[in-house]
């Protein structure tokens, strides 16, 4: 707004002065009009250069702030590995690099504005020479008062040029920052809901995969030929080594990605044709790394259901058998937490996310290493409560702790993006395959921990 206001005022001043000069003395006005192509040439020369250097400054500043934020967030790791000097050296290099970009902007701006000022002074000198000749020449017989009057008008005309030059350079700097913002805002998503996408007003929770394949890069599939059916109320456990495709599979159920080929049906409807907001409103996701916003515990829980009352939230926590743990916080459920859950332990953050998911009353629940950050006793309490709360809800459980999936209706063992074993916990132990080996490793690790 400031740029527009200053430009309108200064531009209006120049237009009015030019009109009076043209009316007063057309010949001398032609000298002033000769400034227009000069200004155009200067603008053409410096516009691209100034845009480039200001864009480079913005990008360099982003690198500096990103490195600073990362260093502050990882300060404990930095101190643990004694990397203070190395991180400081990296930051100094970035600052030195940033200073070079700032110098380039200063040099460009320091060249542009004096050239504008020199051009205006050159044309004023030209007016003085031509006007003085006409005053002194017997043939022209121009009154000296007319020349003085024209010079006053010329001063009014040239005075805003420096102001406009400053405004122009500031505008280019702002445009460089805006360009980065709008490049993000204008970025088109890889996919969006089709216009004829349907609502799922009351989801039953039946999930079916039909020969589904998916790859973040289509040439390198992460999941291959996945076929399975989870009936409403069933608990499906996903087991496999790191990188086997467990998290990718649940991300497809949550419609964070779309299948590369095959079908994924929710209540018999292809997930591509379901409105994303309709699906997410009836789905609860609890991940290993959950996000906690600044605010109170109540406000964070209410994200799952904005209309939930304090009593609803307390009841959800009571049913999960963790109300006493949350009420033990300094101010109970009204305890203020900082950015990303500062002030809460990892286990407490996990409990907040459990309550947040359950207060939304979801039809499909996804637990991705959901109890990995809580202690064994708390995990046992939550597992016992979940057995009752998950009744009637379809649940997908991803876990490395095999103790969390013993009661699953179906256990799927994934390896390199394929389902290689499926069945109940007892059936897979009897099969004595990959799952049985994983279970034996888990038992040995548990016994070793117990001895320690």
Notable characteristics:
452 residues; alpha/beta; ABC transporter transmembrane region fold; Rossmann fold; 2 domains; six-stranded mixed β-sheet; four-stranded antiparallel β-sheet; 15 helices; 12 strands; 13% strand
Written description of the protein model:
The protein has about 450 residues and is α/β, with parallel strands linked by helices. It contains 15 helices and twelve strands. The strands form three sheets. The protein has a six-stranded mixed sheet, sandwiched between helices. The chain has a four-stranded antiparallel sheet with strand order 2-1-4-5, with helices on one face. The protein has a two-stranded antiparallel ribbon with strand order 7-8. Helix 1 runs antiparallel to helix 2 (about 25-35).
Briefly, what is this?
By secondary structure, the protein is of the alpha/beta class.
Strand fraction equals 5-15%
- What gross morphology would you assign? elongated
Contiguous runs where pLDDT drops below 50 for at least 5 residues: none
> For the residues shown, what is the average pLDDT?
79
Indicate how many domains the architecture comprises.
2
What is the C-alpha radius of gyration, as a whole number of Å? Answer: 35 Å
Q: Identify the CATH architecture of the largest domain.
A: 3-Layer(aba) Sandwich
So what's the CATH class of the largest domain? Answer: Alpha Beta
How many angstroms does the end-to-end distance come to?
Answer: 68 Å
Q: Superfamily at the CATH H level of the largest domain?
A: P-loop containing nucleotide triphosphate hydrolases
Give the helices and strands as they follow along the chain: HHHHHHEEEHEEHEEHHHEHEHEEEHH
Q: What structural category do the secondary elements indicate?
A: alpha/beta
Within the largest sheet, what's the order of strands?
6-9-10-3-11-12
Largest sheet: 6 strands, mixed
Kindly report the oligomeric state of this protein: single chain
């Amino acid at each position: 707004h400031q740029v527009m206001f200053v430009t309108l005022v200064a531009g209006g001043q120049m237009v009015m002065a030019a009109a009076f000069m043209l009316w007063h003395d057309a010949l001398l006005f032609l000298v002033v009009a000769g400034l227009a192509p000069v200004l155009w040439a200067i603008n053409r020369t410096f516009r691209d250069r100034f845009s480039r250097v200001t864009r480079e400054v913005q990008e360099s500043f982003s690198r500096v702030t990103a490195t600073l934020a990362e260093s502050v967030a990882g300060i404990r790791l930095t101190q643990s590995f004694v990397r203070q000097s190395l991180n400081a050296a990296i930051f100094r290099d970035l600052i030195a690099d940033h200073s070079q970009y700032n110098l380039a902007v200063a040099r460009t701006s320091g060249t542009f504005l004096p050239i504008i000022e020199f051009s205006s002074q050159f044309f004023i000198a030209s007016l003085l020479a031509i006007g003085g000749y006409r005053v002194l020449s017997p043939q022209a017989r121009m009154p000296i008062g007319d020349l003085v009057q024209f010079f006053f008008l010329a001063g009014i005309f040239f005075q805003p040029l420096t102001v406009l030059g400053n405004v122009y350079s500031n505008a280019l700097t702002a445009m460089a920052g805006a360009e980065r913002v709008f490049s993000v805002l204008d970025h088109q998503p890889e996919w969006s809901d089709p216009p004829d996408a349907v609502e799922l007003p009351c989801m039953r929770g039946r999930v079916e995969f039909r020969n589904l394949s998916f790859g973040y890069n289509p040439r390198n599939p992460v999941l291959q030929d996945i076929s399975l059916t989870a009936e409403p109320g069933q608990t499906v456990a996903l087991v496999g080594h790191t990188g086997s495709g467990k998290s990718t599979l649940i991300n497809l159920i949550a419609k964070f990605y779309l299948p590369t080929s095959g079908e994924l049906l929710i209540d018999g409807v292809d997930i591509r044709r379901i409105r994303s907001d309709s699906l997410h409103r009836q789905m609860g996701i609890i991940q290993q790394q959950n996000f906690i916003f600044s605010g109170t515990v109540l406000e964070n829980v209410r994200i799952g259901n904005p209309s939930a009352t304090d009593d609803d939230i307390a009841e959800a926590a009571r049913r999960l058998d963790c109300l006493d743990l949350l009420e033990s916080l300094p101010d109970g459920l009204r305890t203020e937490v900082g950015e990303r859950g500062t002030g809460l332990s990892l286990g407490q953050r996990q409990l907040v996310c459990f309550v947040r998911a359950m207060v939304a009353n979801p039809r499909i629940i996804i637990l991705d290493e959901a109890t990995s950050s809580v202690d064994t006793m708390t995990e046992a309490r939550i597992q016992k409560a979940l057995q009752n709360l998950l009744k009637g809800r379809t649940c997908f459980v991803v876990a490395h702790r095999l103790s969390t999936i013993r009661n699953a209706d179906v256990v799927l063992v994934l390896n390199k993006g394929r389902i290689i074993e499926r069945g109940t916990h007892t059936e897979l132990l009897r099969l004595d395959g990959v799952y049985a080996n994983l279970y034996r490793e888990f038992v040995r690790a548990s016994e070793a921990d117990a001895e320690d």
